[in-house]
Amino acid sequence: MFCRHNRIWLSSTGWQHACAAVDKAHLPDLQRWAENDWPLVVRRSDVGYEVETIAVGLALPPPANGGRKIRIPLSVHPGDIARHEAPLLLAHAASALPAIWQAAFTALSHDLIAAQLEFRVYGSLSLQAMTGLPYMTRTSDIDVLFYPATHVQLQQGLHLLQHYAQSLPLDGEIVFPSGHAVAWKEWVAAVNSPDKVKVMVKSMRTVSLLDVSALLSGLEELS
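The structure assignment produced for this chain is given below.
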C-alpha cells in the first residue's frame, strides 16, 4: 500500500515511461533524477485518477532569485516501481540542516528515541538530505510526520512538537492508524477549543473534515 509522502524509485523502464509522458521542458530534470537514482514522492491522487496508477511528484529546489517553486506531477504504474520506502527518518536528515538548528534537532532526536516515538520528515529537508541539492532556505519549515499508535504516544509526541517548536520551525502532520493525516498545529488548536470538533484530514484520495473523536477512536488505549 502506498501512502502520501512515501518515496519510490523507478526502474529504468519506469523512467523511460515517465520521460515520455512529461512536458519536454521538464525532461532534463527527470533525466537528472534518473541518472542519480533519486526517488519520487507519492502525493494525493488527482481527480479522475486512473485506479491502476500512483500519483507522484518531483519538486525542484527553489530558484535562487526567489521565483515560483516548480513541482512536476506524474502518474506511474506499480510495475514501473523498482522499490519504495517510507518517508525519511528524522535522524537521517540532520546533515541537511543549517548549523543554527543542529543542537535542538539532535536533542529532539534523542528525546524521540527515549520515548520510542517515530518521527519522519518530508518536504525541503527530506529532499535536501536525499539529493544534496539546495532546498532549505531561511524561511523553510521542518516538515515532520508523526505516527502515534496509542493515546499516550499522541500526547507524548505533541508535547515534544510544542516544546521544540520554540527553537525549530516545526510543521507537518499527525498520521493516524487509519492513514488520515492532520496538521499537528491544527490538531492542537482543535483540542484546545471546546467549539471545534472537526479537523481537516488528508488521505491518498480526499481532503475532508472529520470529527476529532473519530480519529481518537482509532488509537489504542494503552501504550
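Interim note for the steering committee: Helices lie at 12-21, 27-36, 99-115, 123-131, 151-164, 184-191, 212-216. The two ends are 26 Å apart (CA to CA).
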